[in-house]
Amino acid sequence: xxxxxxxxxxxxxxxxxxxxxxxxxxxxxxxxxxxxxxxxxxxxxxxxxxxxxxxxxxxxxxxxxxxxxxxxxxxxxxxxxxxxxxxxxxxxxxxxxxxxxxxxxxxxxxxxxxxxxxxxxxxxxxxxxxxxxxxxxxxxxxxxxxxxxxxxxxxxxxxxxxxxxxxxxxxxxxxxxxxxxxxxxxxxxxxxxxxxxxxxxxxxxxxxxxxxxxxxxxxxxxxxxxxxxxxxxxxxxxxxxxxxxxxxxxxxxxxxxxxxxxxxxxxxxxxxxxxxxxxxxxxxxxxxxxxxxxxxxxxxxxxxxxxxxxxxxxxxxxxxxxxxxxxxxxxxxxxxxxxxxxxxxxxxxxxxxxxxxxxxxxxxxxxxxxxxxxxxxxxxxxxxxxxxxxxxxxxxxxxxxxxxxxxxxxxxxxxxxxxxxxxxxxxxxxxxxxxxxxxxxxxxxxxxxxxxxxxxxxxxxxxxxxxxxxxxxxxxxxxxxxxxxxxxxxxxxxxxxxxxxxxxxxxxxxxxxxxxxxxxx
Length: 521
Fold this sequence. Notes:
Elements: E1 2-3, H1 20-24, E2 32-35, E3 46-49, E4 63-67, H2 76-89, E5 93-97, H3 107-115, E6 120-123, H4 129-163, H5 167-179, E7 182-187, E8 192-196, H6 200-205, H7 208-215, E9 222-227, E10 232-241, E11 249-255, H8 261-300, H9 304-314, E12 323-330, H10 333-347, E13 352-356, E14 359-365, H11 369-380, E15 384-388, H12 397-414, E16 418-420, H13 421-425, H14 436-455, H15 460-469, H16 474-481, H17 485-499, H18 506-519
Parallel strand pairs: 1-9, 3-4, 4-5, 5-6, 15-16
Antiparallel strand pairs: 2-6, 7-8, 7-11, 9-10, 10-11, 12-14, 12-15, 13-14
Pfam family, one: PucR
Protein name: PucR family transcriptional regulator
Domain PucR C-terminal helix-turn-helix: 462-518
């Protein structure tokens, strides 16, 4: 899918050196300018000869139209309309051959051409129209050959850059230099990875909303922007990068004017090279992910001595001092992982990040930038939940992972984005009793008592609540209910009969108390 603006007729030759002025400068043609002197830099796309009084249906724009005026006559209004039709059709210029129909260029043509700023050339009788056509054809052929040669040179230069140490950055820098403008590479999340020249980073950052729009479309996709749409007067082309429908990154190029065909070829070559680089990076990342997962399992198993040796070569080391284990689940894990690694790279924090099944596990410095970024992202990202362990040592990461698992379970059940283990391990368990599963269990457990209370005498549920709240003290519980202790003893035996459980069991008393609290008013 492409949102690029349609090409104007002169796009292919916008940077062409074959112009009306260059033809006038050729001494062998003897062309004389009679009007439109301010528009002589118009590129000439082709030469077309016609004696029709209305050749517009056969024009595409950008032509130098040659005529002897055989059917035009000398009527001022007809000549004026003729010039206006040609100007509206976008011709590059009009050449009038003299010595046949006209001894000199009619003043009405001169006035009309001046009115529309249309280059009007007098073609002397010794100069055949075919000579002008041959001159333009030769010049265009030479220019096209030069463009092809230059494009191949550019492709070779970009390829060498891609194979170098800083492949993507080098490709972006070479591309910007070739276009005489700027270029920027974005990652899959829309963040600017590299820009050239350096000042272009801020300009590229202003295009984040447009990158987000492109990000929502299946790859490959592109769009062209100019003026207010791009928040700059540059002509900007945005292109997604990736070999499948999911974009792996984005490329932006900005130039003063629309791209010529040769420049578009250079951009396409850069897109292909960057896509290959990103896909190669993806394959490498998959291998690294497998190694990171194996390393994570060593850490969680307590094999930190071996893990540190391996991590020294792979990651440059493991987090030291107090660490936290973060476990994330959801659809935005790729973005969470990318942001976490970017934060670690900016601050120099050691980080162990690895996929584990459908989850992402991070061992990060306690209170560090990665920890903060993940906590903030949990609020911003709609499709991710994070469980966070308490601070611990790397040697105790296995226990911390279990804490993070419990915190994540609470986050998923409660619909929260992020839960710290301190919220689970401290305070009361009562806030967790609102879970649907707990509610269903409590209602099922207490159903026999409630059915009894609806149809028979004796409030068994209230009696059970009072007895449990008084820790089985008969006199105190009976006083709370306003009944004799023997009545309360009878009710508790009835509770045991209906539930099929003994109140002498501490686990039974705990479950009943939690069920009463979960379903109580």
